Fold this protein.
Amino acid sequence: MQEFLEFTLGGIGVGMIYAAIALSLVLIWRGTRVLNYSQGGMAMFTTYVAWLVIRHTGNYWAGFAVALASGLVLGAILERTVVRSTEGKSPLNSVIVTIGLLIFLEGLAGIIYGGQFRSFPSAFSVTGLKIGSVALGISSSDAFTAAAVLGAALALALVFRFTSVGLRLRATAFSPGVARLLGVRIGRVLTLGWALAGLFGALAGVLVTPSTFLYPNSMDSIFVLGFTAAVIGGLDSPVGAVAGGVLLGVVLSYAGGYLGSDLVLVYGLVVLALVLMIRPTGLFSAAASRRV
């Protein structure tokens, strides 16, 4: 029973990391209708910025804040200088461009910082929590990750549902021509969408890296699982991103604990295939309600 509890809570903790990546993908999809395959590279690059700040100041929270700010700036710059050239063209163009951005960011990080593995500090202790003599399988750092991701998901849901910014983002994504006729500054809205996605990606990078190592390709496997979580939950739903991340994290924790951890990525792809066969739009997608 204790083993089951540890796998469950540990899976929720890891799932929150997948949820953070999924949230950044949901944000940019809802705001621009682009799947950003460079999101992992953006998260990695901003995490290097945080690592530099922490290394020189010794202050984790200074690095955390600078990472979020650099995510905003990086997302905006990439949209204005690279991604905007694909606007109004075939969706395949944006796929190729974002994959190219991923390769560029990983190569640039390798040139600047080298390819060696670097440790990254956590905000709180990574020592497992206990209730009496019962180990919970999570740490204070995991609890902070869960709180940060849930707060980000709530903020994103509120922005899209209750603010004019969220309305402009959704209008631009679904009908940019009509939105432009209604006075929406399409270019600025797209830049904002990418900037916010960069911020969420930076949050994901800072949260996940203490449990791994920092190197140019460090976010690749995490991005794959975060993308899987986003598809499971539905690319239109912030709530679905969190639920998909938690579901995927728990399933992979059980599979890794009881079946072996060597094929975790394969287990994740199996979950993705099952969801796509049963409900291709995702478990929490709002697509059906929009068609009514």
